[in-house]
Design a protein that fits this description.
The protein is mostly beta strands. It has a single domain, classed as Immunoglobulin-like, CATH 2.60.40.10. β3 and β4 form a beta hairpin. The relative contact order is 0.25. It is 0% helix and 54% strand. It is built from no helices and ten strands.
Length: 99
């Protein structure tokens, strides 16, 4: 799940990436905006979900995926869109366009 917060005085968007998976012991966000380097997501015990906040430029689209336990790839099932990647699967898309 994605939630976005737009700032009136900045050309950036704070995007909160939220992911749940019953078998996940660790989840990493892997994305264009991190140069495809994994970023650890923090586990929220109370909500039983992983979270990560990133500030991204407005009016752009970025590809991303989640890496579960260092070996299983998954998409955000509520992403803004999906696009095929060169590995035979899809990437999730986050769009930072102001609505």
């Amino acid at each position: 799940m994605l939630s976005k917060r737009f700032f009136k005085t900045k050309d950036e968007t704070e995007v909160t990436f939220v992911f749940q998976h019953p078998d996940a012991e660790e989840v990493q966000l892997v994305a264009e905006f991190t140069d495809w380097q994994p970023v650890p997501m923090k586990f929220n015990k109370k909500e039983q979900q992983f979270k990560c906040k990133q500030r991204l430029p407005v009016d752009k689209q970025f590809h991303f995926r989640y890496l579960i336990n260092g070996c299983v790839w998954d998409n955000d099932h509520q992403a803004d869109d999906y696009i095929a990647n060169s590995y035979g699967s899809d990437n999730s898309i986050v769009n930072t366009q102001r609505l």
